[in-house]
Fold this protein.
Amino acid sequence: MTNTLDIIALEAADVSRVFFSTLAELASAICEKHLGTWSQRMLQEAGIRLEVTGREHLVEGEDYIVMSNRQSRYDIPVLYQALGMPMQMLESKEVARIPFRAIRTGKQILPVTIESTGRPSGIDDDAAAGGHKANVVISAPIDPATYGPDKTDALMTVVKGVIESNFSAP
């Protein structure tokens, strides 16, 4: 026969698990809301307007490993606004592990090209307030499973090629 203290302990553990799980979800939702607000404010203050193409490649509820080029300090707010989905960032030293992470988790790689986020040289703050357009191209996801762990260099070459192919001609 189970004693009363064991039952109380089990119920307390269940309540704690539900409580902390709910708390974590709430904290995540609050953080995402703040990141969305922060990124929108950053772009407004910088006078950057987005033109986004390729949103049809995003599947609601799907998790992706997003890979993009880097142009300026505004790239992260641009990604938050253009993609409109929760994201986690990796340090640049972890980029080499992305193909393995994608293969292990089964997540597709979403190539994103960001262009014109840097403030053109010679433009003062008054001119920048009028804004300039940054282009974002969301390409079709790439399934890393078709490459496998032995062909990660080929996978990265394809991802890089897709990102570069969306730059405007000079």
